[in-house]
Design brief:
The complex is a heterodimer. Chain A is an alpha+beta fold. Chain A has 2 domains: 76 residues, Beta-grasp domain (Ubiquitin-like (UB roll), Roll), CATH 3.10.20.30; 70 residues, Orthogonal Bundle (DNA polymerase, domain 1), CATH 1.10.150.120. Helices cover 33% and strands 16% of the residues of chain A. Chain A has a 5-stranded mixed sheet, sandwiched between helices. In chain B, strand 12 and strand 13 form a beta hairpin. Chain B has 11 helices and 14 strands. By secondary structure, chain B is an alpha+beta fold. The chains are: A alpha+beta, B alpha+beta. At the A-B interface, strand 4 and helix 3 of A face helix 2 and helix 6 of B.
């Protein structure tokens, strides 16, 4: 049996028929073609699938599309400005090489943006604890943490990451 | 996942009717345990009744000398509530330690206790704080609610509405967590109500349990030293690749001391 869901995804309203058991991550990737959100472990552990639902970070592999009917969803594709200017957190990840293979990066960035929204001045410990739901199998955590700290500073200042000077 | 029907009732009465009408329906809280279970095809419910739009199940209120927390209150809301932090800070800190950030943004109090996972955190607070579980049809004492591994006193179709936690004089929760899942390998909730001390243990056994010998020792002298020499029988405790029963028995003593020290 099909259900109709209406979501606002990256600012655009979409209405689609979905099966009840369709996971949000599959809806985003397969129905909408937004493949920036990844399926990693598929067991709610790794965080590669993290998106924002009404501003809160959630694991889209552990959320049904019908569960979030009516909600506003932001994916990694929705972070950068319309002209392609990277979000400060994305810029910080690039500058600090906060990725190796890059598979976990969309989830890391989405989790990082959510944690800085809640705590604009995180300590290194806050960042490490805040990213507990995200796993990097390249184990590149040090640069990820550096990137999030820089990204937090850039988000506070409201400007692009001032990292070139470092 | 196997196919299922989906409903999102808008009132408690509609939710009770919906679950009552299903042969094998499941109530859906945040889904952080239920959906992984369904993804592995370990369960095949006929329908999911999503409780997210039921207003009677939401909110945190200061009531009757304690806190009443709606069943569909997410862990992150409890963790960040100024009311919880003021009235029962140990409960806020317990909620902040559940799973990870994304799990806390979805998972709910009612879902956690209805599932009665042996390693869940909330059951220790329900028992430790002498809470009362309020359902659509009755009140259930926290001491009577958890009846075994993944088993509770809930009847088929019974819906948890809220949990009332009395305010203790002091309380704390200490947890030795699995570093990957953040479930409690052992968690101990200690609470003091006047001359009564309650010690509730999660993670160690098939279901949450109290430790009368620890409670008696602490009632006479509320200090970590009062627990020196007391041991826990490993017989019947959980054993898995993370910890043997003997190790869990040892951890109960260590976590109880940490909780007592944290409660001050």
């Amino acid at each position: 049996m099909a259900n109709t869901v209406t979501l606002t995804v990256n600012g655009k309203t979409v209405t689609r028929e979905v099966e009840e058991r369709t996971l949000l991550v599959h809806f985003l990737r397969e129905t909408l073609g937004l493949t920036g959100t990844h399926v990693g472990c598929d067991t709610s552990q790794c965080g590669a699938c993290v998106v924002h639902v009404d501003g809160r970070s959630v694991k889209s592999c552990t959320t049904l599309a019908v569960q979030v009917d009516g909600a506003s969803v932001t994916t990694i594709e929705g972070l950068a400005a319309a002209d392609g200017t990277l979000h400060p957190m994305q810029a910080a990840f690039r500058e600090h090489h906060g990725l190796q293979c890059g598979f976990c990066t969309p989830g890391m960035v989405m989790s990082a943006v959510d944690l800085v929204r809640e705590n604009p001045t995180p300590s290194e410990k806050d960042v490490r604890e805040g990213l507990e739901g995200n796993i990097c199998r390249c184990t590149g955590y040090h640069n990820i943490v550096k990137a999030v700290l820089t990204g937090a500073e850039a988000m506070r200042s409201g400007s692009d990451a001032k990292i070139a000077a470092e | 996942m196997y196919a299922f029907a989906f409903q999102r009732p808008k009132s408690l009465a509609d939710a009770v009717t919906a679950i009552g009408a299903e042969e094998d329906g499941k109530l859906l809280g945040g889904g952080q345990t239920l959906l992984p279970t369904l993804k592995q095809r370990l369960a095949q419910p006929s329908a999911l009744i999503d409780l997210s739009a039921v207003p009677e199940l939401k909110g945190i209120t200061e009531a009757a000398g304690g806190l009443t927390i709606g069943a569909f209150t997410r862990h992150a809301e409890v963790a960040h509530s100024a009311t919880v932090a003021r009235v029962i800070p140990a409960l806020a800190s317990l909620a902040e330690g559940i799973g990870d950030r994304q799990v806390r943004n979805m998972g709910t109090l009612g879902g956690s206790i209805a599932n009665s996972d042996p390693a869940a955190d909330y059951p220790s607070a329900v028992v430790g704080l002498k809470a009362t579980v309020k359902t659509d049809r009755r009140d259930i004492a926290g001491d009577d609610f958890f009846t075994g591994m993944f088993e509770t006193a809930l009847e088929p179709g019974e819906v948890i509405v809220s949990v009332h936690f009395p305010k203790p004089d002091k309380a704390a929760y200490a947890k030795f967590r699995n570093p990957a899942s953040r479930y409690a390998v052992v968690g101990v909730f200690v609470a003091v109500f006047g001359s009564e001390v309650r010690v509730a243990v999660t993670g160690a056994g098939p279901s949450v349990f109290r430790l009368p010998s620890f409670e008696a020792a602490l009632a006479g002298n509320f200090s970590a030293a009062a627990l020196d020499g007391l041991t826990v029988d490993a017989d019947g405790l959980n054993a898995d690749l993370h910890a043997s029963a003997e190790y869990r028995a040892h951890l109960v003593g260590v976590m109880a001391k940490r909780a007592v020290t944290a409660a001050g």
